[in-house]
Structure formats: C-alpha cells, structure tokens
Records
---
Amino acid sequence: MPERYNKAIVIGDVCVDVHLAIRDLLMDDVIKEVPYFITPGGTSGGSAVMLSKLGVDTSFLGTIGVDYGGRYLKECFEKLKIDTSLMIEKKDLNTINVFAFIDEQGERHLWGFPRVSQAYVDLDFNAVDINKIKTASWLHSSGMTLLKQGSIRESLPLLYKTAYEAGVPTSFDFNTRVKDLSFLDEEAVFAIENILLIELILLIFQFAYQKN
C-alpha cells in the first residue's frame, strides 16, 4: 500500500494581493510614502491560507514564477505550515500581483499585473505526484483558475477524475463572476462542465449511501 498523503490539496490560482487606499495615492505631497500591505491571494491561494488557519493539514498545487511574488508566496505558505512540495516553479512565467485599490466606501477595485505569461494557468499533469492526489484527504479548486487559456484547463479535470476514482472527496468553488457560461470561451466551459459532472456524480453517490 502506498503511504497516504492525508492533506487537503488546493489547486489553482495564487497571487500577491497588494492593498492600497485610493485616498493615499492622491495625496498632494511632493514626496510621499504610500501606505500598503501585501497578503497571499487568489481564490485557490486564499482558500489554502484559510484552511491552514483553521487547523486543516493543507497542501498547495499550482505554478509560480521564479520572481519576487513566487518567493513571497512560498515563504508565506511555509510559515503557515502549508506543504509547498507540489508547487511548480518556472523561470519563464510570471507570478501575478493583484492591486486592490480601496475607495472611500471600502470597496476594492482589482487590477492584475503582469498581463502576459501568467504562471497560474500553467499546470502540467505529468509533473504532479499522482500518488499524493490519490491519497489526499480532500481536493479543492476554483473556476477562476480556468478562465484564461492554459494547460490547467486540461489538467484540472484529469486531477478531479483521478481523485474521484481513488475515493478522495472533492469540492469546487464555481467563482467565475459571469452571469452565465455563454460569456466564457468553449474550452473554459468544457473544463468547468467536466469538473461539475464529477461533483454531481459524487453527490448522487453520497445521497444514495445516506438513503441506504
């Protein structure tokens, strides 16, 4: 029997959230130091952080760049005891920084940079330790991960299928922020529907088991 991994694996997008107040950016001072703070972000990255803070043994699977953002995120995860052994680092890709400009009402206006060669949409299925997927305690991801063209659109449904066949519980945060799927391109819809189908099958089996 293979050694069990027994961690909740969160897959997908991770970024550096940079928080700035618009009023501070508009200060009239000729020389000014704009207050800001940074945190690990992304719909999947944020989920991993919250799970770890809740005491869940957590791992993160996703791609980061070999850059400031990648180093910062990996360091933060390790401080939070999130296993980073499944994280993939690529020199030719960029970790995303998401700037959250906060207005007077406290609303955040988000803008991500760089806009090209974004690391989080890249995920090579063959680079993943499949035994850890098969022996995880849980597997979770987000629809936000699938919105842009990248290899993760092919890999993520395969990872859900692998977990399902091994009896690993899964969850999926739809989180696409669109009114309906017609706003998305066909490849994104195909990947999302494949994952939702697996989730539906799991729900049916769970319901049947409870009835019996």
---
Amino acid sequence: MTARYPLLYFWLRLSSILLSTLMLVLPGLAQHLSLFLALLLIAVLGIPHGATDHRIFSVLLYRKGGKPMMKRFYGGYLGLMLIYALLWWLSPVFSLLIFLLTSMYHFGQSNWNYVNLRSWPKSLLYVLYGAFVLFVPILAHFESAQPIVASIIQRPLSQASPLLLNGGIGVVVVLNFGMIGLLWAVGKLTHQQAWAEVLNLFILLALFVSTPLLVGFALYFSGWHALSSIQDQIVFFQSQKPGYRLKDYVVEAMPYTGLAIFGLMMMIWYSNSIQMDAASGILFIFLSLVTLPHLVLIEMLYRIGQSAEVEWGATVPE
C-alpha cells in the first residue's frame, strides 16, 4: 500500500509522530479528550470508508442481476448486522472473539493485499498484521482496556503481569518484523517496500505505546486503515467511471455516514450507563456490527474486482 500512496503515508507518518509527541507532552489533556478524539476521528474518517459499500456491490454484481441483486444486498447486509447484534446479546465473549478475528484479517488485508502470495500464507500474513494493530495497544494499555473489555463481555477481567503483557507485545512485534524480512528474502517485497513497511511498524508501535488506547487505535483505524481503503475504493470506482473523484466519494458516503453516526448515538443514548468505559465498549460493539458485512464485501472486491469476472469499464448504476 505504501508504494501506491506515498503522499498519503507521508502525512499519516507525520501526523502519528506529532500526535505521539503531543500526548507525551500533555498526558492529562490526552486522557481527558481521548474518547472525544476517538469518536471524532471515527465519525469523520472511519465510518465513511464503509459508507459506500452499496456502490461497491452495485459495481461488482449489479449487471448480473439488476435491482433484485441490490435488494439482496440490503437484506443480506442489514440481516448480517442484526444476527451479529443478537449474537452479542446472547454470547458477548464469543462475539468478541469473532470481532477480533475478523478485524485482524480485515486490517491485515488492507495493508498487505498488494503482495502476491498463495491463499493460506496470505491469510496468515493478514492475521499477523491485524494482531499487531489490535493487541499492541490493548496490551500496552491493559489497565485502560480491562474495564472496557469487561463492559463488553459483561464479566470481570483478570489481572495480567507486566511480564506477560510485554512478552505478548514482543512476540507480535517480532513476528511482524520477521515476516517482512522473510517476504523480502523470497522476493515478494522490493527493498524499498520492505523498508517502508518496517518504518510503518516502528511509527505505529510508537503511536500505540505513547498515546491512550482509544486515541492510538482511532488514529490507526481512521487514518492508516480507512484512508488507504478509501483510496483503493476510489481507484476501483475510477476504473468503472472515468472522472470519478474524491468529492464524488464524499457525496455518496454522506447519507450512510450520517445514518451510521445516528445509530451509534442511539446505542450510547439507550445504554444503561454513560460512563466512559461503557461508552467505549458500545463504540467497539458498534464497529463490530458494521465491520462484519463490510469485511465480506471488501473480500469480494479484492477477489472479484481484481479478476476477469468484473467487466471493467461497465457503467456504474446510479
């Protein structure tokens, strides 16, 4: 991804370094504004990157079935969210495991989809990277994560020793650096790509360790993940509709972005508690509900959109 969008990653690196520095200089302000900053970043950047899923589906499969296919899309998309919401109510622990696994794969896919690997090694690569961006901030700020996770799974979470927490961070970090070295050694990454990925891991590691849990994850999710995904989607739409620009994406994403933000606010409003830990837990549950169907669709985009099955240049239905 870095090689495709060098300017984007330059600003992401710079903003991450500046935010890390600011949080170290003003730690009190950071803690006080952490939930607000997380919500702002996710609302402005994170949610919109999934707000054009209906457009992606229409490009991929509309010509195969017309309007009935779009009805299936809305029914399947909303149905999957409702089923997952019911599962959260019935079994929060199992639902959390699903969220972690699917998120790990999804985050890794957005970073590593450009690498030419066979199916299972590529999936392993995705999961390892996803483990880095999920577990490093959680383990680095376990005291902050503990009450949030407890509110999500509705049961107390046991303490963990610093040795275990730091050891977990070390294992995940070493595995990811090792994977980059292995990919470079077997010729799957150029020298420039390998160094760019190493630099990204170092900056993200510093960001996750130096910033509060919610702030670090929100910047990664909204910037490193969502913005690069938006870039990919715009490139895809441009292949179907010459002249498609960022402003077109913003216009198309606005209605569903507003609807998603409204849904998030309603979830927080109807919560039994509006304490920060409970609100943070609701935020992660909300993200899980919109991530699962989004992940399925993005998997289709990478699998079908890069194959001959899609008629490139076909008219995008309005």
